[in-house]
Amino acid sequence: MLNDKKIAIIGTGNMGEALISGLIVSESSKPKNIICTDVREDRLDEIRREYGVRTTSDNLQAVAESDIIVYAVKPQIIAAVLKETAEKLDMSKLIISIAAGVPLPAIETCLNKDLRLIRVMPNIAASVKEAASAIAAGEHATKEDIDLAMAIFNSIGKSIFLKENYLMDAITGLSGSGPAYIFLIVDALADAGVKMGLSRKEALFLSTQTVLGAAKLLMETQEHPGQLKDKVTSPGGTAIAGLATLEEGGLRTTLIHAVEAATNRSKELGEVMLKNFANNNACKT
After folding, report:
1. Full-model pTM
2. CA distance 220 to 229
3. Which of 21, 78, 110, 122 is the most exposed place for a label (fewest CB within 10 A)?
4. Predicted confidence (pLDDT) per residue in 118-148, tens digit
5. What digits encode the pLDDT tens for the residues 20-52?
6. Contact 256, 250 (CB under 8 A)
7. CB–CB of 96/68 below 8 Å?
8. In total, how many domains does the chain have?
9. Is the residue at 256 inside a domain?
């Protein structure tokens, strides 16, 4: 799918490096077709040695030489980086942003030109190539552009395409923030194991492996979680006693409220970002 497309990764932090590694390990792209940028020369040296990709501190050069540009920079600086590279951005290039909380309309406001834009919300599991990523497209992005974006982000996990851009806030609340909820659950399960007499190491291993195994079972069987839950519970057994306690404590409702709260916060931050981009001097000529 990516063939010999030249790909620029603007920013080589954790997510940028995860993309570089994913593209190369999956053989979706060759190192010679990837050019990476960063403000830290020592970081670029490290990335070049590790992956054999091309590197430069010149964002404009990287954009000029590429067919696909992935902006993997922090939301606070993306306006400045977009404007810095704007003169080399046109309809011949696919532009992908993974800046959390920055909606496509903010990018469009900043650049003020017709472009093939895509926004992606991956999550922290990209570092182990198990990210859950959602992809949303701008007005001028084509079906091929969406396929190219999915090919890139499938190299670090699994991705879905959203027809409705506004649902990206829900994605942020669910899968973007979701690993934090799971980490808390795993930690709580480990605490429970310690309370019941297990060592911390044993309890943490068992709680982590249990979550991993349950997730893999769901993915591979494609059964509804309720059906799998019923397979674990037996009349008067241990699992149903534990489940009754979880329901009494409101775990289900609490998780729903957590996703709702994170989604609403994402909407608030997106609105602030849109206003900031409209008023930001970095986005003005």
Report:
1. 0.91
2. 15
3. 21
4. 999 999 999 999 999 999 999 999 999 999 9
5. 999 999 999 999 999 999 999 999 999 999 999
6. no
7. yes
8. 2
9. no
